[in-house]
Amino acid sequence: MNTNVSTVGVALGGGGVRGLGHIPVLEAIDACGIIPTAIAGTSMGAIIGVLYAAGRSGKEIRSLVEEHRVRRDDGIKDLYAKRASLLKWLKVVRLSWTGSGLLKADRFLRYLIEQMNVTRFEDLKIPLRVVATDFYTGKAIIFDSGPLLPALKASMSIPGVFVPVEHNGKILVDGGVSNNLPYDILPESCDLTIAVDVSPTREIRDADPPSMIDATLGMFDMLIERVTQAMIDKRPPDIYFHPRLVGIRILDFDKAEDVFTQVQAAIPALTERLNDIRQHSL
Fold first, then answer.
1. Are 39 and 12 in contact (CB under 8 A)?
2. Alpha-carbon distance 162 to 68, whole Å?
């Protein structure tokens, strides 16, 4: 690893609600005075990545998320204060009746883009690369220019959950199928690469057999873990951050608070390493 760090690339992996764990990481990067020069993201990592690339700080992204979620300790006054944001949130994801997926994410993503006041990759303050997967070839498709909406829709289209995206003659699904932790597509000019993996930590537990959807999403997790491990074995990133995330499935959006708590426990060790790298690069 180059000790003279001037360009920093950050890769944010997919993982559904676990992707909210990228927010404490970005807060730590900001607090250490490190300014990323390139970002790559897959699925939820692409969603958080585009907010950051558009100029939002880690703290500002957390505020946006907190505004749109119900906390366990929220009282009536808190819910009343959030009512407008919560109603908007409920309207942005809708059911699909096409048979190719349960949900359509276009309203959610249009709403997200409205919050950023950007519509194209060229509008972003930090260069961003987003990964999707060609359904028929299984190859990764990299977006880094043009409209943001089709790239984000495709990148988060978990097979069987979200409707696949038709774009430029291709059928595209979730980027996690081909590259869930895309640090390898960061520019070669980066002196430091930071990869944030939010895949689950598996524990053997006595439990009832999984439901069909749990089994499907669990197999999806196992598939992308193997692809990611093969990448790391071949060429690891400079910093690989994989916090312990237990008992949180891809679509457990009611467990956002658990994501923040579990990731936050690992942040001090990451901060120490980031500060050490920064000090040695001055």
1. yes
2. 21
DSSP class of residue 266? T
* pLDDT of res. 91: 44
Instruction: Report the catalytic residues.
Output: 43, 174
Handedness of CA 43, 49, 53, 57 (dihedral sign): positive
pLDDT of residue 207: 65
The packing angle between helices 44-53 and 58-67, to 10°, is: 120
pLDDT for 237? 97
State the amino acid at position 52 in one-letter form: Y
Measured in whole angstroms, the distance separating CA 203 from the mean position of its chain's CA atoms is 23
Q: Which residues of the chain have pLDDT under 50?
A: 2-3, 70, 74-76, 78-104
For residues 102 and 94, the answer to whether their CB atoms sit within 8 Å is no
Look up the pTM and report it: 0.84
DSSP E strand stretches across 109-236: 128-134, 140-143, 165-167, 170-174, 192-196
Q: How many residues does the chain have?
A: 282
Q: Helices marked H in 117-211 — which ranges?
A: 148-155
Q: Do residues 16 and 251 make contact, with C-beta atoms less than 8 angstroms apart?
A: yes
- Other beta carbons within 10 angstroms of residue 77's beta carbon come to 8
217 dihedral zone (left: phi>0; alpha: psi -120 to 50; beta): alpha
Contact 5, 279 (CB under 8 A): no
Question: Quick check: 41 and 25 in contact, CB under 8 A?
Answer: no
Instruction: Say what the pLDDT of residue 37 is.
Output: 97
- Tokens 């193997």 belong to residue: 226
